[in-house]
Design goal:
- By secondary structure, the protein is mostly helical.
- The chain is built from 15 helices and no strands.
């Protein structure tokens, strides 16, 4: 049940309630940290310092956040059309294959200023293509989008493994990864860009894909709330029968929503492969597609909220690594547990406190 069912003011729904949920999540996480014999204050200090306290840590945090922005937007666009796209992992993986083929086979003939935009377009198109089949099955055959997108995650992973082992792996190499991309196929890092202007920055994985993430947020915000096609898409998501009665074609909107969603997920390949790894790896998505579900839920399926949730997840990922290094006995599994609690309370249980806030505001109005 949405918070709108409790007649909450808009600023409470999108502002106060998420902050409250985050505080509850941090309180429960602190109790868990205390129960395993560590100081919550010390753990929080190490986490924040590791994620935001150094230029390198901040670079890693923003790099993770860039990936989560893409996957969060992928989930949000589909959600507004009444679809639950769980296939971000597969769409990003297939986009990585397309991007890798473009980088390896076009780099010798194409300059970087032309190749890099082409690789972005190829990644988007391959992400769209992998989302198109589940979209078509949903629109024309009634197949459930959740089931088909999950299946396509496994198909993409299997195809990626097969091509890496049998086609893209360099001869004589035992590592399951492709030939490294030529320099023209590498997205410049932020420290590289700063060096062009004579500014010295410490190296980090943050690269120009972060600008793509900003552009994607602007585009999705404009598309969903400022364009006629976006209005039609949201109408189908809110009331399919009423939208169809009004002359909107639900099947067409399903295809459009999944195409844009797949393109957003495909942008992860640009950040991860072209921007950081410089080659196609076996599992470069590393759960980012599933994390995008929590990011989108926490961000209320809005680009601004998704950016904020992505930054939170970036802090948790980077800061969590520092916590596992700095605190003796604080294993990586404990970090994942704390991260999961924050996702649970701030994302999946986001509406649990809505009745309490509704009663408080109702009482305040009467008083």
């Amino acid at each position: 049940m949405s918070s709108a069912s409790y007649s909450l003011p808009r600023w409470v729904e999108i502002g106060l309630l998420p902050v409250w949920n985050l505080l509850v999540a941090l309180a429960v996480s602190a109790a868990v940290v205390l129960a395993i014999g560590h100081s919550p204050v010390q753990a929080f200090q190490v986490l924040v310092k590791g994620a935001l306290g150094t230029p390198s840590g901040l670079g890693y945090t923003l790099y993770y956040a860039t990936t989560f922005v893409f996957t969060g937007l992928a989930v949000a666009v589909a959600f507004h059309a009444g679809l639950f796209n769980i296939g971000g992992e597969g769409q990003g993986t297939f986009a990585g294959l397309g991007l890798t083929l473009a980088a390896l086979y076009l780099a010798p003939q194409w300059p970087a200023w032309l190749l890099l935009p082409l690789m972005v377009v190829v990644a988007a198109l391959f992400g769209m293509a992998w989302a198109a089949v589940p979209a078509d099955l949903q629109a024309w055959r009634g197949s459930h989008i959740v089931i088909t997108t999950i299946m396509f995650n496994f198909l993409a992973a299997s195809l990626n493994a097969y091509l890496l082992v049998n086609v893209l792996r360099p001869a004589g190499s035992m590592a399951v990864e492709s030939t490294p991309f030529p320099e023209a196929g590498r997205m410049p890092g932020l420290h590289d860009v700063a060096a062009w202007f004579g500014i010295e920055m410490l190296p980090s994985p943050l690269n120009l894909s972060s600008l793509l993430a900003v552009a994607a947020c602007v585009f999705v915000g404009w598309f969903l709330w400022r364009s006629r096609l976006g209005y039609a898409l949201r109408a189908v998501g809110s009331a399919p029968r009423a939208a169809e009665y009004a002359g909107i074609h639900p099947k067409r909107q399903i295809l459009v929503a999944m195409a844009i969603s797949g393109a957003m997920a495909g942008m992860v390949a640009v950040n991860e492969l072209s921007g950081v790894q410089g080659k196609l790896a076996l599992d470069f998505m590393a759960g980012a597609g599933f994390a995008g579900i929590a990011v989108s839920l926490m961000g209320r399926n809005h680009p601004v909220g998704i950016v904020l949730a992505s930054l939170l997840f970036g802090v948790l990922y980077q800061g969590g690594v520092e916590v596992s290094f700095e605190l003796p006995g604080f294993s990586r599994e404990m970090v994942v547990t704390v991260q999961g609690l924050i996702v649970l309370f701030a994302g999946a249980m986001a509406m649990v406190s809505a009745p309490l806030f509704a009663k408080l505001f109702k009482g305040a109005r009467r008083g």
